[in-house]
Amino acid sequence: MSELVHLDVSGGIATITLDSPANRNALSAQVRRELLAHLGTAIADEATRVIVLTHTGTVFCAGMDLKESRGAGAEQQGVTEVPRILGTIWDSPTPVVARLAGPARAGGVGIVAACDIAVAADSATFAFSEVRIGVIPAVISVTVLPRLSARAAHELFLTGETFDAARAAAIGLVNSAVPVDGLDAEVARYTGMLALGAPNALAGAKQMLRRTRPEAMAEDFAEMNTLSAGFFASEEGQEGIRAFTEKRRPAWVPG
What we know:
With 255 residues, the protein is α/β, with parallel strands linked by helices. The protein has a single domain, classed as 2-enoyl-CoA Hydratase, Chain A, domain 1 (Alpha-Beta Complex). Helix content is 47%, strand content 15%. The strands form two sheets. It has a six-stranded mixed sheet, sandwiched between helices. A three-stranded mixed sheet has the order 5-7-8. The longest helix is centred in the last third of the chain and has 20 residues. The protein starts with a strand and ends in a 10-residue tail after the last helix.
């Protein structure tokens, strides 16, 4: 089986690339396993000063692989692995920079929020589309809500509306929205600055900025896991997933 997530280390920068463009870099079981493994390797490498999380294809990450989630139980839904991915990025003592040349949806937005720095092409779009398929952005809320203003969170979580990179920057989801031809230069600007910081000082600064007890985040993830699993397994959730995969409107949409 070909690898769907790659790790390349050069000049103190570990680049982790989501390479599953056929399913819009969705978080399939294989992608989840490989992403966790590569994050662990990069964090454990003392020579790595910065981690860059990027992608191939036109989409950064479409969220959970709904074809796998259809009729699946909690384990198959990834509700145990996604919190580990988000928590690993969030708690990483090595700074993590997200590089988005394309859209992020649902769980993909959770990954962006977990990163310390996020740079997006101005053509990238975002959405918390969960409610439109009968589920809720429960697990990713643990990393997303600390980033967003309360008004923006209420609006975007409830409507599922697509918003652009400029809006994402304005509400705190990403740090910078730039033309796509300037994306790599902007990422390099951030990684260059981060590399100037002392490793232990950077780790300490991250811990100070988070101000969240690890056990508290673990409790939040556990609670949100249970909530998420219930919605995925619900009648609405399964109908929404079927409608999405069958490219039709869910039964609850009027008309």
